Amino acid sequence: MPVRSLVSHLDRGLRLPSEAVDPCSLEVRQVVQDLWDTLATQKGVAMAAPQIGVAWRIFVFDLKRPREKGGPPTRGLLVNPAIERRFGSIPVIEGCLSFPGLDLSIRRPEGVVVSGYDLEGKKIVLEGGGLFARMVEHETDHLEGRLLPDRQNALSSFLSFWRRRRWEERMRRRI
After folding, report:
1. Confidence band of 103 (pLDDT split at 50, 70, 90)
2. Taking the model in full, what pTM does it have?
3. Which of 28, 120, 122, 129 has a Cα at 20 to 30 A from 153?
4. What distances in angstroms separate CA 175 from CA 40, 70, 88, 113, 127, one per listed residue?
5. CATH tag for 12-174 (out of 3.40.50.300, 3.30.2350.10, 3.90.45.10, 1.20.1250.20)
6. Which residues, at least 6 apart from 134, have a Cβ–Cβ distance to it below 8 Å?
């Protein structure tokens, strides 16, 4: 299966909401395999289909840690995910594969309940906190056309302005 190139943060496609898909289709299985293959070449813990240029509501994740007793899986996928509930809010420093080298201070939920489907069309409902909750909201943001800088509040945005400006200059030199 092919490793796909990551879509640049400048690509307007990352700003568009993704379409729901048939979780049982062969095309969805192929995109999921491409996501797994591409994620394996990156330093991230999850990847959404829009990040490889496919505007479908799919993401895969591998949190690279053991599963906590009674907790959500640490490796998996969700097709057509929807966050049913968020609880709590914590400040975090977060990065994104679509913005390589840029880490921003944002707020994420302490926990989430998310529903979606597996590749057999079976409904899945997962609940978890910590890294799992942050990952779910981050990847769901991608599916909604929302990007990491969109999550910054005014103060955080002001404080990281110069860091983002230096990062943008480095990215322009790479293009």
Report:
1. confident
2. 0.87
3. 129
4. 24, 45, 39, 39, 40
5. 3.90.45.10
6. 92, 94, 108, 109
